[in-house]
Amino acid sequence: MQCRDARELLDSFIGEELLVETNHELLQHLATCPDCSAELEGRRRMRSGLKQAFSGSMDLQMRPQFADELTARLRVSTQPAARPAWQIRWFAIAASLLVVVGAGTYALRTRISEVTHLAAGDHQNCAVKFALQEKPISLKEAAERYDTTYAQLVTTPPDTVRTAAGILRIADRHSCVFGGRRFGHVVFRLDDHLVSVLVTQAEIAGASSKEDVRQLSWLPRMNGFGMASLHTTGHVVYIVSDLQDSEFRVVAQALAQPASQLAAFRSPLEFQHN
Amino acid sequence: MQDDSEARQAVWAGFEAEALPHVERLFRMAMWFERDRHEAEDLVQETLKQALESFHRYTPGTNCRAWLTSILHNVRSNRRRAKGRSPIVSADAELLASTVPFVPPVPEHLTDDDLLGALRRIPVQYQEVIVLSDVEELPYKEIAATLSIPIGTVMSRLHRGRALLRQELTKARGQVVPISADPQRRRS
User: Fold this and answer.
1) Domain check: are A82 and A151 in the same one?
2) Which residue range forms the structural domain that includes residue B15?
């Protein structure tokens, strides 16, 4: 093999695209030709350098929140859209603020992520898009049929919550289903924004779901919404909003206080055991 | 209705496991070609949206990253056409590449800025094949499918693109390589 032939094949050699026979011939040439070996090394250096430069370039890195936002948007898009007549009343409060308060457990990161996505999706499809497949029911009915915890949301949080960012005023209280998961949903209005509070049963039944950690946790923004959560015995509470971070934190903390007082959160399963 | 819901859940679970791990690499590629963060995010989102909608066409166990890359380039190509932009491959650029006088040696010391700066200065159709081959490590066959060009064109663009890249690297380093020092000239 001549050097000219070898040079033509080097890139394909690096890319492992050569036939076995050609590969063998080239290796034989490289073993006896320092110039072509040096050329091969240079090409490898350029190739690996490019890959490293791409992965290391700060200009090419995505925002840390982008993956979560994207996942939430895609996940929501997998849900069927519908807009029944009962939802028309929601148009009056369709706005940009979302607070989702749900109940769940932090035992497994992926499971939490799944419930978090569903909570965000519930807000987006219930409070903003009015596109839930199943009509919401009253909290009283939900308490009788599914979980007595929902009854407490009739009065908690109160209809008006004063915060440093403004006064939250009640818009609606109900129980709805998104992605097969039932939520107790309390919606507040703050100027042109919406604040939703979603409460749902913990994802995992077991020891970890019995945790009673009433500290507010800040979650990555999803779909542009700030999200926070806390969990009580057997339930998770989410707070989500499109407010700027500083205002969102104020509102979430104001709502977390009454939410954390829902001390009697108990699932029907627990009542049966008792 | 329950079956439908379960089917959607199953599709999502597969998509989440196979496709979503590649978001970061897809974004880097989108960002390189779009040069605008908003455009890049939009491109990646549209790519994954289309991928999710056609996920039933994806064969588990095959190269999901190549499949996503192909969709991304299709979306990008369609958008360019919709915006009335000139085609990515220009005759002038092909002529430029065909008249590369010699291939200088690869400089000993390369910085990330050297490499990315040089890559940015060569025509975009050569950037595409180099990124897909050297950064994404896709085989020629996958690159050809992604860009809808013959494998022979992939190989010739890679050859010419790398030669141009080396010229740019040499220029950036201020090195003047005499023709007599070019090993290909000497030996051919």
Assistant:
1) yes
2) 2-82
